[in-house]
Amino acid sequence: MKHDNPRIVVEASRLLQQIEDEVRQKGVQHSMGETIEPKIGFPRGYVRTASWFRRKYSCHIRTIADHVAYTLQFHDVLRWLLNRTDHSLTARQMVIKYGVV
To answer: 0.85 exceeded by the pTM?
Structure first.
């Protein structure tokens, strides 16, 4: 069952769409290595720190511990996308697939 979005969420969605429309209208290319402005700040506090993961899942080999921690941070980003955004079924499935792989 889908709940009604609070007014602030509706407004944020509208503003994000307005930003995307303006960026596209100005002809900014989405090529590799090119900076696309404006960039929207990712919400701070959602992605746990690498040190948090290293403490939670200890490993005596530092390189492995780092790789695991960074991968789990990326999973936090994917989880945010799944929990906080509304996108097509195919895009959602691809985010899940990427997280599993």
So the answer is: no
Contact (CB, 8 A) for 97 and 78: no
Structural domain boundaries, residue 93: 43-101
Do 99 and 57 reside in the same domain of the chain? yes
Same domain (yes/no): 58, 90? yes
Map residue 46 onto helix, strand or coil.
Answer: coil
Measured CA to CA, the distance from residue 89 to residue 27 in angstroms comes to: 28
Distance CA 15, CA 22 (A): 10
List pLDDT tens digits, range 55-82. 999 999 999 999 999 999 999 999 999 9
